[in-house]
Structures are given as C-alpha cells and as structure tokens.
C-alpha cells in the first residue's frame, strides 16, 4: 500500500510515523511544498517547543479549544497528552512541566523534538520529498491521484492531508473541489496593536493576573498580560484573540479593550482594599504604597492617569480621586487598531469542516481513503501546547488508516 502524507509539519510527521507503525508493509512518503521541515516545531515556544500541556482530564482539556471542543473529546480518548508524554519518553525525550502547565523538552531546545521525529522517520524508512507542492487531488478507482505543481502525477491508495492552516480561503480550493465544506479562515492567536496609547512606553512589563474584556461584546479572558512596543500581548490577550477570532475579524480589529488590573476583584473588593490603605498608610504618598502589588512602572503609570500629582498622600485622596482610581484599576480603557500575527507561527480559525470528518478515524466522509490531521481542520487551541497536542492526536488517529 502506498501512502502519501501531504505536509512536513508536526501533524504530517506524526501521521506518517503512525501510518508506518500501524501498517509496517506500507510505503509511506511525506510531501512538503517548501524546502523546510517542521518549521513551526523549530520556532514554537521561543525555540523550546511547547510540546503539550499538563492537563490530563479530557473534559477540562477540550475547554482550551475554541473550535473543535466536542469532537476532540472522542479524539483525546484515543491519544491524549499522557500518550504524547509516553511516546516521546519511550524515544529518549523527557518532558518537563512549567508553572503554567506548559510542557517542554528538558533540553529547552526544539531541536530535541525535531531530532526525535526525524530519527523515527528515518528508522521506519519513511520517504521525504521537499519542494513537492500538490496542486490537485482526484479520486481514482483504487485510491487517489496526486497532481504536483511541476505537472507530475502519482497514484496512491491512501492520502493524509496535514498541510496546516491557510490564511487565504483559496488555499482550500483543492479540498473544496472534492466536496468538502470549508469554514472561512481568519487569524487566531494574535496580539493587539495600540498605536495611539502611551502605555506602550512600558514595553516589557508583565501584569498578572489581569482580566480583559472587549467593549460591546461578551468576550473576556484572564491571565498574564505583556505590554509591548506596539500594544498588548501575553496569554490573556492571545486567549481572547483565539476565542474571539471571528467576532474581532468582523470588527476589523478596531475596538476598545477594558483591563481590570486587579484580576477578578469586584468594585466592592477594590474599594475595601483602598479603604484599608487609607486607614493604615494615610500619611504616605500614593506612589509609595502599591496595594495590588502591580509592577512598579505600571503602578506609576496608572497613578498618572488618576492625575493627583506626585506628592498626594492617601488620606487626602478624597472621594472623587478614589472613584477615579477604582475606575482605572477596574475598567482601564484602550483603543485597539489592528493586530500583529507572527507570520511563521500563525494559527488560523477555520479549515475543513468537522462535520465532513469521522473524528474516530480522521477519514473524510466525502472521499474514501482521504484523511486529515492538524490545523487544516477547523480545530484550533489557545496558546500553551494545545495546538501541538491536537496535531499529535489527529496525526496518530489518521495514521491508523482504518
């Protein structure tokens, strides 16, 4: 049996390895359109590769996926984060867990993961062909016919599509022509651009935890927030961009973000804290008492927004200034004008509609012998190793080839 895996990324490699492992007599070949293999693996997690997440309860794990939550319950029952950890461990790659649950190789190098996958492919005798872009895919009597951009064709019995997400709808045309429904792709996991906001002068400051809301919507998230030279990033923002991918796209990425710098504290709780500060530190300058333990530069910046002057002491704040401080701590407003998506690491919301896929096999319901894995599907997770876990899981299942 000849098996073609289209795509040389994480999902493609894992599909090919699974295909050869489950079907030892099969001739398995990976076709990659570029001359680079595992490029996202190389750069993810700042070059450390966030392999998976330390979340082992499937009903909790699926909540990190804005698209695909329900179908993934079945998929993770077949290949879970525990299986991922075991798989790499059995091949000499030990993973470690960080405080936020993200899991990396103990080497802190993505090259460790790349070397492991490349070695496994080599040991199994899986073929790799780079600069082999697929233009068409057609059904044949015994399988499928690959049409390459250079004009060549190849007939195989099974095909796994693991081409990743496409930022453009036309990138899915060849799959649409086979009868698949495509959810329109829009960017996910992006940062907020704030060209008109002076908070960008605090670039590098991290506040945690904070709560972020989008004005005029129900979108909300919590977590660490990173201030950058262009606006805001960090898990709180990335999570919000993921769950709100379609809604924020419809807003053309122009909206107001409301920040609660105290996290989840209510107005009443914030007032109680400030009342306690006035009673305990009334004669101290407000600059010298940081009751919510915010980063120093951020606290100074927020005090400036209250406009009380450098020498104001707590007991002289008065009701008006306290009200203003409560509002800024709880509903600090920023104008977002655009997004930044890191080109090499982009994640898309959208892709092949999950109703067209048998999630237990990853086989197309439209075309026999055609399987899918990874971000080409309308599945995406928030940042933290969830997208790689979806790649390992769907790749493993697709590679079983029924």
Characterise this structure.
The protein is an alpha+beta fold and 402 residues long. It has two domains: 2-187 and 342-399, FAD/NAD(P)-binding domain (3-Layer(bba) Sandwich); 190-340, no CATH class. Helices cover 33% and strands 25% of the residues. Strands 17-16-13-14-15-12-18 form a seven-stranded antiparallel beta sheet. Strands 6-2-1-10-22 form a five-stranded parallel beta sheet, with helices on one face. A hairpin with a 4-residue loop joins β20 and β21 (363-364). The mean pLDDT is 96.
Shape: elongated
CATH superfamily of the largest domain: FAD/NAD(P)-binding domain
Average pLDDT taken over every residue: 96
CATH topology of the largest domain: FAD/NAD(P)-binding domain
Taking strands numbered 1, 2, ... along the chain, how are they ordered across the largest sheet? 17-16-13-14-15-12-18
CATH C-level class of the largest domain: Alpha Beta
Give the count of structural domains: 2
Low-confidence stretches: none
Structural classification: alpha+beta
Question: DSSP strand (E) fraction?
Answer: 15-25%
Quaternary structure type: single chain
Helical segment count: 13
From the coordinates shown, what is the CATH architecture of the largest domain?
3-Layer(bba) Sandwich
Sheet with most strands: 7 strands, antiparallel
Report how far apart the termini are.
Answer: 13 Å
**Helix percentage:** 25-40%
Question: How large, in whole angstroms, is the Cα Rg?
Answer: 25 Å
Number of separate strands: 22
